Structure formats: C-alpha cells, structure tokens
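queue> holo job accepted (thymidine-5'-diphospho-beta-D-xylose)
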Amino acid sequence: MRTLKNILVTGGAGFIGSNFIHYLFEKDSNFNYRIINIDALNYAGNLMNLNDVEEKWGGKRYFFVKGDICDAVLVHDLFNKYDIDTVVHFAAESHVDRSILGPGDFIKTNVMGTYTLLDAARNYWKISDSSMETGVLFHHISTDEVYGSLGETGYFTETTPYDPRSPYSATKAASDHLVMAYNHTYRLPVTISNCSNNYGPYQFPEKLIPLMILNILEGKPLPVYGDGKNIRDWIYVEDHCRAIVDILIRGERGCKYNIGGENEWENINLLYLLIDITAKKAGIDPVAVKNTITYVCDRPGHDRRYAIDSSQIKKELGWKPLVDFQTGLEKTVEWYLCNLDWINSIRNGEYRKWIAKNYTERETVI
Ligand code: NAD
Ligand code: TDX
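queue> job finished
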C-alpha cells in the first residue's frame, strides 16, 4: 500500500482530470494529501469544473497552476516547490477528429509533454536501482485506442500488440512506449492504465455523448459517422477514477492495467437509448428527435470496434465497474440539463476572456 502525499495532476481541468480531482476530494476516505493541478487551459480545459474545489481547498490542499507540460523549467520548479511524490498524467490533446485535421499539437503535448514530465520526475526523484521500492510513482493515463481496431470478436488484453491507427492514438502509443522505456532503462517507478471510452459530467461537447445530448436539446441534426455500427466500450468516468486510485495505491510498478466498462454499444443503438433518456427528461418527443439522425461521411480510418478485457485489474486489485449504462447516462443527461450555464460560457467566449484576464503562465509558481 502506497501513501500519497503531493500529487501532481496534469490536465486536471479537463474532463477526466477534473472528475478525478472531485473523486479524490469527495470520495477517497484516505484523503489527506495535496493536489497540484497543472493545466494549459486549452479549449477543453475549464476551471469552472473545479470552482467548488478551489473555494474549499484552494491554497490549502489544492493548488492550480496554469502552464504547459512541455515547459521543462516550469515542470521542474513544480517538482521542487511541492516535493512531488506522485504524478497522475492526464494532460493530452484527446479528440481523434482534431488529430486528423492537425496532428502537430498532439505530437507536441502527447509525446514531448510526456517526455518532459518523465525527465523531470527522473531528475527530481534521483532514481537508482532501489527506487522501485520507494514511495514515488509516475502514473500515465492512456487509452484502448493504442491497440488498434477489433473485428467482431475478441478483446484487448495488456499483451495485445500496439497498432495505433489515428494520429491521436499514435501519439498516445508513443507516450506509453516512452513511459515503459523510462521504467526499463532508468528504473523509474511507473504504471499505465489503458481505458475505454469515458462518459459523464464535464465532458467537452465535441465527443459523441455530450455532443448528441446538446444537439437533441437544441433540435439540431444528430451526425452519425459512416453506417453507425462502430462499437465502443463505454465506462462511467467515476469507475475509471476509482480504478486509477486503486492503481496508485496498490498497482505493481512497471505494469499496465486495462480498464473497461464491459459495455459494448454500436453507436446507432447508443444514440437511440440516449434519445429516449434525454427526450423523457427534457419533455420532448423522441420520435421527432429520431428523425433528426443524419448519416454523414465517415471519419477517415475510423476504428471499427474497441473492447477491453479488464480481468487483470479485477483479479489483482479487486476493481470492477459499478455504474450500469442506463444509470450513468441518466446522471450524465441530468448534469448537462442542470448546467446550461457551463455550456453557454464555453460557447459565448466569456469564459476565455476571463481566463486571459486572470491567469498568466507560471505566475503561481515563480
Ligand atoms: P480533455 O481534452 O477533456 O482534457 C485534457 C486536458 O489537458 C485539458 O484540460 C487541457 O487543457 C489539458 N492540456 C492539453 N494540453 C496541455 C499541455 N500542453 N499542458 C498542460 N495541459 C494541457 O481530455 P480527457 O477526455 O479528460 O482525457 C484525459 C486523458 O485520458 C488523456 O490522456 C486521454 O488520452 C485519456 N483517455 C481519455 C478517454 C476518454 O474517453 N475521454 C479514454 C481513455 C483515455
Ligand atoms: O459526431 C460524432 N458522430 C459519430 O458518429 C462523433 C463526435 C463521433 N461519432 C462516432 C465516432 C466513434 O465511433 O462515435 C464514436 C465515439 O466518438 P468519440 O466520442 O469522438 O470517441 P472516440 O473516437 O472513440 O475516442 C474516445 O475514446 C477514447 C476519446 O475521445 C479518446 O480520448 C479516448 O482515448
């Protein structure tokens, strides 16, 4: 069992990162550590996701730093200033469609950013052969997409060979390899988790589920790529966060853990279910909404099926997904319905202006 002291969370203002920070503050009974959140606040990073945490814990147990993980001086300063013993590395460019339009930012953040963090950890922790036994840990958040695409049967296991097929998944695969190389070559204590598609509160409305919820509410067309029969394995974000905590505390150094929801859905069937739930909660006619489904051009290189075999983490750490899909989707739809100001602030640009006025890089560190 590891004791956590000073956790550097990267990308903590994004979807999964902010859910993770909420999870630590609200649901982890062992919580007595400090969280330092570094986030560049790109289009998907949103400090409103953490207003309540900042209010209650800011300057005591929670510290936000606006900054880029590629900034080696800043990252090194953070390790020193906060005596970091644990890294949980979420920060990434995360949307496949954006990686197809322009891979450059993905290579910078996902590859160079991960390298910068690994090197800072290695230098600060003064890694030697015995440090695998010490309390420090670099946990890297990765994705099932590194394994490529499945046919109608089979599952990704931790030993499935990597076969990334989009610029996004190629950069995530590269970062996974770097993490393992630092473990093998320099004995850096690391773990990696490869998770399937997450859904839940605070997800930027470019990803399938929040995009469809908002389009349903606004009466806009619902764009389905290709034949709509691509399959994803969906997991409620809180189940993912709980798995990460289990790995931080009890995971074996140098190991990878697959995390999945055991919940495969064809996109089109997921959309029918989401329409039923959203229409019912919002009091709109589901039949009219179904008429707005629009089949559009397929995503180039669109992976057909992802499915995760989570038996290793279940067996070794006793983790399993707890939230069933109907319940998770209902909670998610309710969250978006109750947080229309969050959506509006992203859309009307006010939030961006506020960030530009109130935050400059590095100011909280130097
Ligand atoms: P997100 O896009 O919502 O959040 C990413 C966060 O990283 C944002 O807050 C952004 O501002 C920040 N960021 C981006 N570039 C940065 C940089 N150079 N320096 C500092 N911060 C930077 O993404 P997400 O969906 O929360 O994904 C988080 C992690 O989980 C990613 O590593 C992603 O690959 C992985 N993952 C996501 C899913 C999913 O379904 N969303 C599934 C498996 C794995
Ligand atoms: O408008 C859409 N219409 C559509 O049919 C969008 C945005 C998506 N899709 C399809 C493409 C996929 O088959 O829905 C599926 C899910 O798409 P995304 O939400 O973009 O997720 P995906 O491409 O599967 O990748 C996600 O899961 C793995 C995350 O974005 C990644 O960060 C994560 O690593």
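queue> The domain at 6-358 is CATH 3.40.50.720 (Rossmann fold).
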